[in-house]
Hints:
This protein is of the alpha+beta class and 134 residues long. It has one domain (2-133): Alpha-D-Glucose-1,6-Bisphosphate, Chain A, domain 4. The protein is built from 3 helices and 7 strands. Helix 1 crosses helix 2 (22-28). The radius of gyration is 14 Å and the shape is globular. The termini are far apart.
Amino acid sequence: MITIKNTVNASLDKVWNFWNTPEHITKWSFASPDWHTPYAEADLREGGKFKSTMAAKDGSMSFDFGGEFTLVKPNEALSYVMGDGRKVEITFTETADGVEIIESFDPESQNPEEMQRAGWQAILDNFKNYAENN
């Protein structure tokens, strides 16, 4: 598994809400400014499905990112299985500096692990920026 993390200077309730609510997901879930997430849905319960569409702003390409939640512990942890069978585990822990988010995911085999780590970290960094400034 690849693990990334960041600490968000916001309340645990706010972090959980912004992480899981489609109206917020569309505002932070992309790795670079030339991409965006025009659509997101989430049935936040074990066995519930989620999907978001990530797209280049110039319309040149897009893809759906989705899967099924396998663990939902509000304000504490999420786990899910992506459509291709890879697993993701996320924890949310209150610290003196804010909420530490630790995200671990199975790598895919088409891109180098360092590239995957950088892309997922960029999305997590976007989340931090969005949650701290909205």
